[in-house]
Fold this sequence. Notes:
Elements: E1 4-7, H1 11-22, E2 31-34, H2 38-46, E3 50-51, H3 54-60, E4 63-66, H4 73-80, E5 89-92, H5 99-106, E6 111-116, E7 126-133, H6 137-148, E8 151-155, H7 161-169, H8 171-188, H9 193-214, H10 218-223, H11 231-241, H12 244-260
Parallel strand pairs: 1-2, 1-4, 2-3, 4-5, 5-6, 7-8
Antiparallel strand pairs: 6-7
Amino acid sequence: xxxxxxxxxxxxxxxxxxxxxxxxxxxxxxxxxxxxxxxxxxxxxxxxxxxxxxxxxxxxxxxxxxxxxxxxxxxxxxxxxxxxxxxxxxxxxxxxxxxxxxxxxxxxxxxxxxxxxxxxxxxxxxxxxxxxxxxxxxxxxxxxxxxxxxxxxxxxxxxxxxxxxxxxxxxxxxxxxxxxxxxxxxxxxxxxxxxxxxxxxxxxxxxxxxxxxxxxxxxxxxxxxxxxxxxxxxxxxxxxxxxxxxxxxxxxxxxxxxxxx
Length: 261
C-alpha cells in the first residue's frame, strides 16, 4: 500500500511514523497524521508528513493505524464509521480496545488488528504484540512486515493481549526506570552523570542482546557473572533483600490488571 494513515500522532503514533520512515517502509510524504496539537502540526509538516483530519485520513489510505487515548477511541470509531469500507484495514494500538467494541462500529467482517507496540519503535527496537481478526495471510504478513521493521513481533490470541500490554507495552518504562536508577547510583558513587547514563543504557542493551541472540535464559547469563563471594552476587542479593524481583513482578501484575479494565 502506498499510503498509511495514523489517527492520533502523539508520542506513540509519531514514534511509529518515524520508525517507518527511518527503516525505509514509507516516505514521510506517504504518511498521513492527525493531531489537534498546533505545535506538532507545524513540526510534522516541516518534516514532510501530511496532516489532515480523521475523515481525510480514512480517504487517503486503506491502511489505518488508530493510536489514540483509550477514552476517546469509541468517539473516533463513531466519527469514521461511515467512510470506513470493507477495503480498509484497521490496526489499533489502543490499550483495551477489543475486537467486539471495534466491530460494533465498523462491522464484524472488518479486517482488524490489535497491536501493542512501544516507543522503541522510534529506533527500530519495539516489542509489538499482535492479535488478528478477519485477516488474510497476505494482510497478516503486511502488518507483520510493518511492525517487524520497528522491532520484534509476537502474535497472540486476543485474551493474551492484556498480558502482552503489561509486559511489552509498559515494560519499556520499567526498563528505563532501571537505567535511571543505575544512573543515579553511578552519580552517587562518583561517576559523571553522562557516563553513568551511558553505562546504564548499554548494560541494559547488552543484557537484552544476550537473551535475544543466544536464545538464552536470564539465569544462565546471570550465573556467568556471579562469581562465588564476588561483587555481583553481593549486589544482587542486596537488591533481592529489598524486593527487587518482587517489585517488578507486582508492577507488571498491576499494569495487567489495569489493562483488563
